Amino acid sequence: MSNDPDKVWPTGLTLREAEEVHSYLIDGTRVFGVIALIAHILVAVSTPWLG
Amino acid sequence: MINIKSFAVRKISAFGMKYLPFADAASEAVPLSRLLRLSLFQVTVGMALVLMVGTLNRVMIVELSVPATLVGAMLALPLVFAPFRALIGFKSDNFKSALGLRRLPYIYKGTMLQFGGFAIMPFALLVLSGYGKAAQAPHWIGEVGAALAFLLVGAGVHMVQTVGLALATDLVEEEDQPKVVGLMYVSLLAGMIVSAFTYGAALEHYSPLRLIQVIQGSAVLTVVLNGLAMWKQEARDRVRGNAPRGPEPSFAQAWAKLSARPGLVRLLAIIAFGTAGFGMADVLMEPFGGQVLQMSVAETTRLTVYLALGTLVGFTMASRWMARGARPIDVAIYGALIGVPAFGLIILSAHMLSIAVLIVATLAAGFGAGLFGHGTLTTTMRSAPRDQIGLSLGAWGAVQTTSAGASIAVGGFLRDRLQSGGAGVHSAGAYIPVFFLEIGLLVLALLLAFPIFGRAASPQAQPQPAQDGFAKGNAS
User: Which residue in A has a C-alpha nearest to residue B96's C-alpha?
Assistant: First the structure.
């Protein structure tokens, strides 16, 4: 099993699989970033902390 | 060098099997504990529904003094996405993944949307109500923010529920599907009941900070519970992952293939009419008891509990009968058959001014709704071809959610139009036409179902007494 040339060290995932897992991470980070931005804008509207 | 590397690979892959959120293989029999864990996603769905339709509905109108029409519009927004359930289900059926996953990525995305919506919701609501300096800001900021929050949560709920049910269907054999449906419904109901009480207690002394804590707490809980539910449920599939990526079938093609199956369109129509028939009572029972029968707030709240109790018994009995070989569609028809006299009894209780009759009728209506809901969902699962489970459950969800939402809106609207003021028997005029309408809708569903009632049982639905323990577990 570990001789499969497609699999990359150290996870044993193939390159495509690893890229897919990574894409979920990227997706999550983007969504969280946008949500945090919107939340900050909304809070700033009701209780401005920037002067 | 090679040895160290192969050692590490072996260690890490053994570690991965234990700690990665995928199942190592699709096992033959899925144990009850795993299905129970999977059903946690229904708890978060119930939580979101109660928070939006129940708790925030009140908080926005009473504490935040947002105009009722605006609140109604905000709460109706998630319904806009309901038809997209079919599309989500279809997408998950055909999802191209190197890991061979189909459902997990969508539950993950749905959970993120739900979380994101809850994360911004309290601030959006505070801006909407003009809290702090927000009164000087343009109006549209609060409106857009709140609309976005409700849309995100709604879209997340649709996604998680559709794909979660599809995953549950994937996991179990056909003869176990009634049990899974029962479990999913009971979890939804349990989630709704528990969170209704929790939100009520948590928001008893309202403050803006408390609102933020409660909603964001729900956000975190959603991620945690959905994470637990998803963990190791879907098997990684190298064969599917490495399959050549042919052209995707179009949604229209897939839909044409599914709707060409005999009885499917009829089934969806039955679901639409029946759900609408049962759904209207949900929001009218409490004001009916209060206004017409002069019950106190505590008594009308108990009325809702009776409705839920009846539904719970309905789910349990439906699971048990189907495990003994009853056809799901027949169980659904019996549910509608019980619903008709139950609503008749409610009308009668207004004339007799009898609370006892109303309670019996409420229990019966709940029982009928439980049978009907369970029977139609199980029928949908059974009739779905293995490669179109997501699409058919999406269609079920789209029809069911849309007609439930529409019926609640229509019921409330009719009642408000017919309202003449006053109390006691005189105010019954606003409710009785709505209850007659419910009976009419159920009769329509029955007429549609009549031609397929009681046909010879399919060979798969043989009795299997050995596995009856599941249904009993629900009853306790």
Answer: A20
